[in-house]
Amino acid sequence: MIEIRRLSECTWKEAVGVWNEGFQDYFADVKMDADTFTARMAREGLSPELSIMAFHDGRPAGILLNGIRLIEGKRVAWNGGTAVVPRSRRLGVGRALVEAALGIYRENGVDIATLEAIRQNERAIALYKRMGYVVINRLGVYRCSGSLEELRDGGGTSYAVRRGMPQDAARLPFYRLTAPWQTHWPSLTGGESLIAFDPEGRAAGYALRRCAFDAEGNLAGITLFQCEADPERSDGEAVMRSLLGEALAPLHQPVKRTAINLPLSNRTAAELLERVGFSLELEQVHMILHCQESPGER
């Protein structure tokens, strides 16, 4: 028998335990201790009241984390991770979790449900498709640990880059509203925006990034969340190159740099990263479901 409970009704020890057990053989290492789990829930707007755990014959069997945000007047939900422990697979636990999550979305008036799944996880992707999700994009996780001196050459075009709060980028008319949940500005606590302006003072593009520091205050890593140019411009590549030169600086320093969930439809940014030494380490699919449509409309 499968029983679904809200995460708020379970202990944190149960939640962290089932998360780690469910992801122990995953394609990437996403195991967390209690402190890291708590920090991620807060940082990414995941709610214990909206998230759920599955129990099979009274034992923790799976978990699905949920968050809901208002984006441009639409209530958008995110599945921030679904895991089923090995002993409970092929028993319908995953389907029960997704069905329960969709019920929670309907109860909360969600317009669009979103998630990401690693491309090789064909079984999970097939389940999501059966439940009505469709793939809207491919996403890449890029990494580089060397220096990026090549980005010092801005391509001959001069742009003024203004730094600000992450939410400043969201005020631009070309801000990517369909960006993956983790790359939207509300997830960037401690991050910053970089907005490029052309010589006429018009906003030409933006980037979102966050820096990490070690215990001694030294720069340890840079994460790039978005890099976009106004699609109406003809100089998009030059704009993005200038933004990357600022967002990934200091360029001479060989620190760990990561571009997370970059939409691969943004070929200009992806090719620029590859050209200067980034490697594609992980590919995901970005999936959405329009919750207000009836099954016959999907």
TrEMBL record:
Gene Ontology molecular functions: acyltransferase activity, transferring groups other than amino-acyl groups
Domain N-acetyltransferase: 2-155
PROSITE patterns named among the record's database cross-references: GNAT
Entry keyword set: Acyltransferase, Transferase
Gene3D superfamilies for this protein: 3.40.630.30
Protein's name according to its UniProt entry: Acetyltransferase (GNAT) family protein
Organism: Planifilum fimeticola
